[in-house]
Amino acid sequence: DAGVIQSPRHEVTEMGQEVTLRCKPISGHNSLFWYRQTMMRGLELLIYFNNNVPIDDSGMPEDRFSAKMPNASFSTLKIQPSEPRDSAVYFCASSLDPLAGGLNEQFFGPGTRLTVL
Amino acid sequence: ELKVEQNPLFLSMQEGKNYTIYCNYSTTSDRLYWYRQDPGKSLESLFVLLSNGAVKQEGRLMASLDTKARLSTLHITAAVHDLSATYFCAVDGIDHQGAQKLVFGQGTRLTINP
Questions:
Q1: A90-105 burial string, b = 16+ CB within 10 Å, else e?
Q2: Which parts of chain B sit beneath pLDDT 50?
Q3: What is the per-residue pLDDT across B12-25, written as a single tens digit (0 to 9) for each?
Q4: Nearest one of A46, A106, A41 to B32, comparing CA atoms
Q5: What is the rounded (10 degree) CA torsion for A66, A69, A75, A77?
Q6: Helical (H) or strand (E) element with A113
Q7: Three-class DSSP category at B110
Q8: Do A100 and A30 meet the contact criterion of CB atoms below 8 Å apart?
C-alpha cells in the first residue's frame, strides 16, 4: 500500500491567495483527519470525516478554512484567503474505525509544508 | 474532557542509558497509541496498546498500559543515537463535545548524545 498521499509537499504563496491541500487516504480506511503542526501550538486536529461525512470541525480556525471529502479516496483542505499565521505543516491521516473492524490507529501522510509570505 | 499529558517534554540522555517517558490521561480509555516523529518528517505509528496490562516491544523500545492508573510508559533500553526523535502518545476517547477522537500529548523531544 502506498500509504496516505498528500500534495503538494511544499507550498509557498502570498498573503491573500487561495491554497488547496490534497489528500488520498489509505484504501479501505473510513476515517480521515486533517491536522496542523506548528512549533508554538503543537499538533492540532482541524477536522475529521467518517465515511466521507464531516464529524467534528471544531478545530477549524475560522471561516477562511474549509474541507471537503467528495468520495472515499480524496479530500481537500482549502484556505481562502491565506494569511502568514497559517504557515505550518498540514498533515492528513486516515484510519479504520473499530465499528468497521479497525483499531482506530491513524496513519499519517508526509505532510504539506505551507509558507504564506 | 479527555486530556493527555506527557513528561518529560524534553529529555537529553547519553547513549547506553535507560529512561522512561510517561503518558497520563484524564478519563477512561482502553486504547492508547505511541508515535515517533523525526525532525521534518511525519508521525510514524510505533505501538497500539488495547487493554490493561498490554505490553509491546520493538527493539530498544517497550510500551505498557495501565488503564486503572490511566498511565502508559515508553521505556528506552540502552539508548542509541538513532532513537533521537519526538515521541507522542495519543489516547482514544471522548472530547468535551462528545465526539470520539484521538487526543495527542504534547510530545517528548528525546535527544541521545554519543
A1: bbbbbbbbeeeeeebb
A2: none
A3: 999 999 999 999 99
A4: A106
A5: 0
A6: strand A112-116
A7: strand
A8: yes
Mean pLDDT of the A15-26 span: 98
What cell was used for A99?
Answer: 465499528
Beta-carbon neighbour count of residue B14 at 10 Å? 10
| Residue A55 to chain B, least CA–CA distance (Å) | 8
Q: Are B42 and A109 in contact (CB < 8 Å)?
A: yes
Record: contact A42-B42, CB cut-off 8 A: no
Among candidate residues A51, A48, A34, A50, the one with its CA nearest the CA of residue A86: A34
- Predicted pLDDT of residue A56: 87
SS3 A85: helix
* The length of chain A, given as a count of residues: 117
- Give kind and range of the element (H or E) at residue A43: strand A42-50
* Residue B81 phi, psi dihedral angles, 5° rounding: -55, -35
User: Between vectors from CA A94 to CA A106 and to CA A22, what angle results, nearest 5°?
Assistant: 135
